[in-house]
Amino acid sequence: MTRFFYILLFMLALGACKKEEGSLFTNPAGSDTGIDFVNNIGKNDKLNILDYLYFYNGGGVAIGDLNNDGLPEIFFSGNQVKNKLYLNKGGLKFEDISESAGITGNSTWNSGAGMGDVNGDGLLDIYVCAVVGLNGFNGFNELYINNGDLTFTESAADYGLDFESYSSTAAFLDYDRDGDLDIYLLNHAVHTQESFGKAELRNKRTYETGDKLLRNDGGVFTDVSEEAGIFGGINGYGLSVAVSDFNQDGFPDIYVCNDFHEDDYYYLNNGDGTFAERLKQYFGHTTRFSMGSDVADINHDGWPEIITLDMLPEDEAVLKASDGDESLQVLKMRVEQYGYHYQFTRNMLQVNQPGYKFVETGLLSGIAATDWSWSALLEDFDQDGNQDLFISNGIPKRPNNLDFIKFVSSEEIKKKINNTRLVDQEALEMMPHGKVHNYIFKGDGGIGFTDMSGDWIKNDSLISGATALGDLDNDGDLDLVVSNINEPAALYINKTNEKANYLKLKFELPTANTFGLGTKVFSYSDGQVQYKELFTVRGLQSSSEPIIHFGYGKATEIDSLRVIWPDQTTQLIKKVPVNQVLTLKPEGNSRLSPSFMEPPRSPLFSRVPGNLGVDFRHVENNYNDFNVIKLIPYQVTDRGPALAVGDLNGDGKDDIFFGGSRKIRSQVYLQDENDFKIHDYPAIRKDSIYEDVTALIEDLNGDGFNDLLVGTGGADFYQNPFTLLDNYYQGTDDGFEKSKLPDYFENASVIAPNDIDGDGDLALFVAAYVVSNDFGKIPGCYLLTNNGDSFELAENKELVKLGMVTDATWTDFDGDGTDDLVVVGEWMQPRFFRNNKGSLEETPMTSDKLKGLWRAVIPFDIDEDGDTDLLLGNWGANTKFRASADYPMKMYHLDFDNNGRNETIISIEKDGVYYPLANLDELTSQMNVLRKKFPDYASFAGKELDEVFDKKLLDSAQLFEVHELRSGYLKNEKGTFDFQPFGWQLQVSPINSFVSFDFDSDQKQEILAVGNYFGVKPFHGRFDGFSGALIHNKDSIQPGHEVGLDLSGKSARHLKVINVRGKPYLLVAFNNEDAEVYELDKYME
User: How far apart are CA 904 and CA 906, in angstroms?
Assistant: First the structure.
């Protein structure tokens, strides 16, 4: 018994020890290290988060070697406590020298902290930001000049840096490349009546809230913000700033994260002392409540990516109890009327596409939801050569809790809050705590990350904020320092040690920029490039040790280092042993070639000036599906425009038909000797009430004149109105005459012609997508046989209720010499129909777990093995939808509330449990009966699907599933087809259309894929990042922007190759945008 007792105690102790540290980082106690800083923030009836919205943003952290002994010191700025400075004595032992150093501070409320050599004497100085002029906060930003003996002299006034404003942090950079350090001072606004309004507010400078660019003029800093093009408005809620040469032109650029409604700022350095703000030009969308940020090259292409943080919870209970994205109506108003950009509530990873726009991949990368996230740091923590990610988290009280918002939004409570403080305590108590563990992710060397929280680091319950990097114990790997609220600061000591190799670089410049901020290093090892750039202000309100660190795994020698100094000279160092600290100085430099970092380009397409006269702009009608069918997962009335190309006037030239949306006319463009001109056909003009979704130009009746068949829909026509009948216009020698088709009332999605029975005329497969006002109800599909002058519906039970069909193609998939039919759609499998002498018979050809949100299909031998594969456009993986073969996304279709109308309930899996995707407000807007079951948000938050809806009710519903969201191809395996997903570049957005052509004149067909989609609620964001892709084969796929296409930010719906004057051109039709015509640069006649 005694022996068992001791064994039990030992096991318990072992378990307890294991919990105290992660596999990669350990957290030594402050009693062991000497770090005892606690940023205590005490709320009272005179000051709390109701009075100051950034009450819980915390202080700052700065790391740097202040006495040049090789050991980095740690500085903490405090909000309601004094600043502290800890001398690194080696062996992870620190001494508090705050009082003797003279840095404790004089301001009421300090915020960010940074280290930089302000006076160019080779010693790091400390700059501390303060919030002054709010809530009785006094003081000013303080500059502590390093005296060289571990004492400091406060000298902000002498340098022109003693600002009394609402400062968040300051970044050191040499923006004008004159050899000394300038400063970007980031300030933040607070909510006032004046801070809400149109985006133009940013143009009117306000001292307290406006950011400042401060040029170092020989030791005195001059505010050059106005002349440099820096915004300084009352709506600038700046929380973090990142500095990097994003476009690799040799000058540092600036990215500013702004909270709330104000856009982030993306300042590109013009190289003449001015900046151009270009956020809308280079980013499709950004984080909404932008907080911390960082920059690093994560995918080894030598170009820096940007991560920005927000506060999307991972936990279902917190997610459903928290306010998140705004309504679609508010978003449209803010963007279209107030001039702001698209913003959504989640972490975002903006991947640099050199010379083009950034593409946002946060959801695809697996880092979008880390709750109330403050600071982000990208570094190679395990030294495997790939960038990892640390995110600090937590807030004492959640002001975005929906029950709290409802409480304080009532008119009675608002009056009490405005007139008295009696309800403050009650309101504060209603806010739940926001203690969330910090996150850490392992990078895969591409754009993907794996959550290692609870493994690499222990899962704590602290309120963490500012975070900085440094090698505190000089063992070669990077450690972390985290400032917590109302808890001791935490050290995360890296235990990689000898498990993987490293290289640390320090720099000495003979200019006033002594530590070499802005220096770039390219490392080449084992065929892999790593790129780093030295800027110290990173994360949130912090600055890290001024070093560059590389990890190399087991490699023992680096092939070469290419160092690019701030003055754009360069030197090459070859055969560098690992596991050392190199201090580099400019030696034997040469001028950097301007072509060194030219973006990769293989132009095949060029926009045609004047668009060959095609001035068509599709205008979507002002119909919002979500106002009518509130629980549909996405809109269905926005699938236009229809596009068809063919000879409409018998002159042998390609003409163009563009379909219009409801009550907006379609347009016909006829080709003449030079370009295209609009032509009016009265028979077509009369039908403007229809919504045209798909179209076909063919000689359907065999009279020698091409006819026009237009598939109509739009899903906002109900019952069986004539507007759901397709339109058939027969060509004549002087125009078109409308002819009749059989009566079938459906929302058409595709018309696929084929001589199915080999009799010389074309039969038509006509598919429908949805039933109006009843998403989930399966529409009909039809086979129309051709009788010459007319069509009739063929009997084919196989086609009656295929699903929510979006596309179809005819191809000989069984190799018998006859075209067969392949049909794809949403919430359904790809379906195969063998052509048996004119009769279509369904044949299973794929796995039974391949239901997707399929949007497009085209035959193509992508693996070049001699048989025909099938390329499939799907929704993509950069989404909040989740689906797999084991845990499919589910949709339940039923009249849940017995009101005579069906609802659709979408459910996704998390940790093996299914939850409704919709929140309480969305569910109750359609089914008010749920308000009785869930009277407040807390009662609903975290409820599983079968806790919201009775299991018997769910079992009685029609169930739809999705197993696969990725686009890819069906590989022909001689009788069956096996799905293979495309790479990540083709998963960022839905793929809507394909076209086949020999675009590069290599005597081989290529496939061009296009997409993007915006018909979703703000909860899902905006699928805008796909620039298209030119698919040569499975191993050679070029992004659209690299071949000359500019398709990001637009929803491309159809592609056609048109022949003009004997030369092919690419025509792209977009939803709600101008059509575009591209010339084929490598076309050879």
Answer: 6
- pLDDT-derived band at 710, boundaries 50, 70, 90: very high
pLDDT band at 418 (very low <50, low <70, confident <90, very high): low
In three-state secondary structure terms, 853 is strand
Mean pLDDT on 418-436: 81
152 token code pair:
């400091």
Tell me: the pLDDT tens digits for 243-252? 999 999 999 9
What single string gives the DSSP state of each residue in 336-393? HTT----EESS-EEEE--TTS--EE-HHHHT-S--SSEEEEEEE-TT-SSS-EEEEEE
Q: How far apart are CA 1070 and CA 1053, in angstroms?
A: 5
The pLDDT value recorded for residue 44 is 79
User: Which phi-psi region, left, alpha or beta, contains residue 611 (left: φ > 0; alpha: ψ -120 to 50)?
Assistant: left
Could you tell me the CA-to-CA distances from 3 to 6, 7, 11 in Å, in that order? 5, 6, 12
721: pLDDT confidence band, cut at 50, 70 and 90? Answer: confident
pLDDT band at 9 (very low <50, low <70, confident <90, very high): very low
Q: Taken in order 249, 253, 257, 263, is the CA torsion positive or negative?
A: negative
How many CB atoms lie under 10 A from the CB of residue 686?
A: 12
Reference 336, options 620, 544, 79; nearest CA is: 620
In the prediction, which pLDDT does 416 show?
Answer: 64
> Do residues 1065 and 614 make contact, with C-beta atoms less than 8 angstroms apart?
no
The C-alpha angle 360, 363, 369, rounded to 5 degrees, equals: 120
Nearest to 244, CA basis, from 197, 310, 149, 175: 175
Contact in structure between 351 and 305 (CB atoms under 8 Å)? yes
Strands (E), 787-902: 791-793, 804-811, 820-828, 831-836, 839-842, 852-853, 856-860, 869-873, 889-894
pLDDT of 717: 64
- Beta strands 84-88; 73-77: pairing state: antiparallel
Helix (H) or strand (E) holding 13: helix 2-20
To the question of pTM greater than 0.70 for the whole model, the response is yes
Residue 532 pLDDT > 50: yes
- State the alpha helices, DSSP H only, in 289-336: 316-321, 328-336
Pairing of the two strands 182-187 and 212-216: antiparallel
Q: How far apart are CA 774 and CA 779, in angstroms?
A: 10
Q: In sequence order, which ranges of 504-647 are alpha helices (DSSP H)? A: 625-628
* pLDDT for res 13: 39
- The helix or strand, by DSSP H or E, that contains position 640, with its residue range, turns out to be none
Q: Which long-range contacts (CB under 8 A, 24 or more apart) does 225-232 make?
A: 227/273, 227/274, 228/273, 228/274, 228/275, 229/267, 229/274, 229/275, 229/276, 229/277, 230/267, 230/275, 231/202, 231/203, 231/265, 231/277, 232/202, 232/204, 232/205, 232/206
